[in-house]
Write a structure and sequence with these properties.
This protein is mainly alpha-helical and 97 residues long. Helices cover 81% and strands 0% of the residues. Helix 1 (4-12) runs parallel beside helix 4 (55-92) and helix 3 packs across helix 4 (55-92). It is elongated and about 50 Å long.
Length: 97
């Protein structure tokens, strides 16, 4: 979505991310659909590392996971935002996670 560079720049400006932090619960759900195509292959890889499954099941995951994530995120977005906001801010400020 082209926001990474802008967010990294904001991380270098003192207090900028602290000011933006209250907006993340509103911005994150709007940005998530644009992020999912990039996140989906990573998520599939992580799931495959943790859950042994036959090849046919792994193939089905590629088709099923986008719908599952869409349904889950509608109900979990508030919890997800709370968990990812501070690590994201720390990362953008260049702090080790």
């Amino acid at each position: 979505m082209g926001m990474g560079g802008m967010m990294r720049l904001m991380g270098k400006i003192p207090r900028a991310l602290s000011i933006m932090k209250p907006m993340f619960p509103v911005l994150f759900p709007r940005a998530l659909p644009g992020m999912m195509p990039k996140l989906m292959p990573v998520m599939l890889g992580k799931i495959g590392e943790r859950i042994p499954m036959p090849d046919h099941m792994a193939e089905q995951m590629r088709d099923m996971l986008p719908g599952v994530m869409d349904n889950l995120m509608r109900h979990m977005i508030k919890d997800v935002v709370q968990q990812v906001t501070q690590p994201m801010v720390d990362n953008l400020k260049g702090k080790a996670i």
